[in-house]
Please model this.
Amino acid sequence: MSTVWVVVEPSEEGWSESAGELVTLARSLGDVVRLVTWSSPFDSLEAGRYGATLQYVVAHDESRLVADVVVGALDELSAREGSPDAVVLSSTYDSRDIAGRLSVRWSRTVVANVVGLRHLDGDGWESEHLVAGGARIAHTRVQSAALFIVRPKSVTPSTIDAGPVESVDVPAGSATSSARVLSRMVEEREGPDLESAPVVVSGGRGLGSAERYQWVDELARLLGGAGGASRAIVDAGWVPYSRQVGQTGKTVAPTVYVACGISGATQHLVGMKGSSHIVAINKDPDAPIFQVADFGVVGDVTTILPQLIDLVRARRGS
Amino acid sequence: MKVLACVKPVPDPSAPVAYGGDGRLDRRGKLVLDEADSYGVEVALRLAEATGGSVAIASMSDAGDLSPLRSALAMGAEEAFVASDPRLGGADALTTARVLAELVRRAGAEVVVTATESADGYTGTLAAQVAELLGWPALTFASAVSVEDGVVTVKRQSESGTLEVSAPLPCVVSVTAGSVEPRYATFKGIVAAKSRPVTVLDLAELGLGPVDHDVQRVVEIVEAPGRAAGEKIVDEGQGAAAIAAYLESIKVL
Ligand SMILES: Cc1cc2nc3c(=O)[nH]c(=O)nc-3n(C[C@H](O)[C@H](O)[C@H](O)COP(=O)(O)OP(=O)(O)OC[C@H]3O[C@@H](n4cnc5c(N)ncnc54)[C@H](O)[C@@H]3O)c2cc1C
Model:
């Protein structure tokens, strides 16, 4: 009998795509699936339907970093009831910090960028994780009791016929560090969430200036979608990190992804290759983005984008 | 204040990626300083300048080729600590963290700066692991870093915004690419880098036991599923209309 812990950030809606994916994965790996979150519980009906067998909700004081609180709590839990055979975590920054600290406490290896995972008949796991910026997949034998950081949208969530799970409140663990959160700033957002929007329009360095990102926003708004970005323009400070698509940003899979002045580096492609349709505008006919685009236009984004906005606006208006 | 920047030589990103039969990245070609680390070195230099301290470099890499580390020294770091041992080839992030934590102790650093992830391995957990090993706070994924009166304050990126987080020294900080503009090495710096002290230590000298390579063993590397390229047109004034028509054909417009 294997025990798998699923560590995933809470959601205001009481359930999340990420929780659905990770709990579905955990169910295929072990018979005891403990869902671990913090601050607010997941809906116990949903947790049960996806296959969790118990939910732990760690108390989180907002002045502390999530990892500092959750790691202590998990450590105390494992001392009481034994440590799990595997921990699967989402790919967020807080989860990375949790995985890092837990790996040291429990002396376990961490596998990141996981896109597939299965239990081996003997002992241990076989994982598939992305390497070479997402261009290749490494099949890896992993000893039992490892920590797996799983990429979003790698698992198709599914439900089973099961009742609600019990929720157990867990006190914050003894603080792992003296770090203090002084303030929190949340990006304002109009329109749909980037990760679930039906249309994503993204801008890259080819836009030429931060001001021109307005066009990306405008087209996204007109199409009922969300605006994304390459890391180059996030690093340049044109748009906040919350808009970044790719290996170290968000993973999106909309009906259509419109890439405007984005070269299509493997680290960007890995975050949007799962889109149903891809449109690309780039002045370089050999830009790698065209290798994944269903419809590509070789041209200047600074002339095409405003024209496209006018056309869409006209069509929407009529 | 002594600041330690952890850096990694990685295969030249402009060369094609290759893997050996053991599933490990082929590092025999030209190695360069990971671009992400140039931000870490820059942040380290600024923290040292603000406190009248100095910067050292720490790396787990093959001491046979020190040129990537010399580029970090040329930016202004004063010495380097290198953990070099053939048994460390293919080590996981936890082993790497154990080695680097040992180098931190040797260097007597009060602040450790790393990148958020390396270009070649990108596990993205190293800073938290090093911090846990040392029993220090970890201020990770920082897009801005400052130090005042023995307290480090950072802007931490989050999926939905930013947090301001602080911790007293000593601590570990991981910085995002783009957090600062890395300085170019001056000619004087490049010359000086050649004579900066480099301490090379193997596993035994670090006091660390054997490395267990069985915790993770790559059995096969395959191509990730691709996508076929579709239609491509050249804009001659009709590009925008063609995109609109395409969006219509897939019922988005
Ligand atoms: C560890 C690691 C993680 C990374 N994670 C990510 C990630 O999560 N997301 C991400 O996006 N990147 C990531 N990157 C960076 C990635 O490798 C690329 O550097 C980045 O995606 C490039 O962004 P870009 O396409 O906007 O810029 P560039 O590569 O500079 O491309 C700009 C493009 O615009 C085109 N262009 C220029 N002017 C015009 C014009 N007037 N009209 C039309 N086209 C024009 C050019 O032909 C070019 O193709 C990561 C890199 C590393 C090493």
